[in-house]
Amino acid sequence: MRCPYCHSGDSRVVDSRELSSGESIRRRRECGNCGRRFTTYERVEGVGLIVVKKDGRRQEFDPAKLRQKLRVALTKRPIGEAEIDALLKRVETDLLTLGAAEVPSSAIGEAVLRRLKALDEVAYIRFASVYRQFGDIDDLRREVEGLRPEAVPTVGGSGADGESAPAGTNVERGTDADG
Ligand SMILES: [Zn+2]
């Protein structure tokens, strides 16, 4: 950190203080060359994850945008902002855990669906219908039926910590001819 007065790179921190709930830190520094003091601020950047869209375009992962989509899916559902926050954090963590600097947008969609399924089934279906672009009512029905076998009894509790198994356990069931 260069001194703004003499441009020496030699400075030491004389005081640090957290600002606004730890999101940034203010430091007082003293220049080792001219002895003058100056202030620096340090803050956490975004997670720096790059999303690769279907058409190949790249853009920075934008939690705000994702929150917007979740809000739409959660319209009139009994899910508060805090729970949306928590879900976004989990999705972000899921994505970071992949360990890649770039993730396909499909990975984000799947991560959201996985987390949303545990939170609210109606919102899950809404999100899936947009994200997976259901072509017809059969797509929708298949998705709803997919919820049935391992439907977790969500009794208002927020801590559905049971990771549902990947959907490999689909019950083999031919389309009911209903006759
Ligand atoms: Zn200096």
UniProtKB/TrEMBL annotation:
Region named Disordered: 148-179
An individual GO BP term: negative regulation of DNA-templated transcription
Coiled-coil segments: none
Alphabetically ordered keywords of this record: ATP-binding, DNA-binding, Metal-binding, Nucleotide-binding, Repressor, Transcription, Transcription regulation, Zinc, Zinc-finger
Molecular function terms from GO: ATP binding; DNA binding; zinc ion binding
Record domain ATP-cone: where: 49-139
Stretches annotated zinc finger (unnamed): 3-34
Cofactor(s) needed by this chain: Zn(2+)
Cofactor note: Binds 1 zinc ion.
Domain of life: Bacteria
Pfam (any one): ATP-cone
InterPro entries associated with the record: ATP-cone_dom, NrdR-like_N, RNR_NrdR-like
Family stated for the protein in its record: Belongs to the NrdR family.
Role played: Negatively regulates transcription of bacterial ribonucleotide reductase nrd genes and operons by binding to NrdR-boxes.
UniProt cross-references to NCBIfam families, sorted A to Z: transcriptional regulator NrdR
Protein name: Transcriptional repressor NrdR
Lineage: Bacteria, Pseudomonadati, Thermomicrobiota, Thermomicrobia, Thermomicrobiales
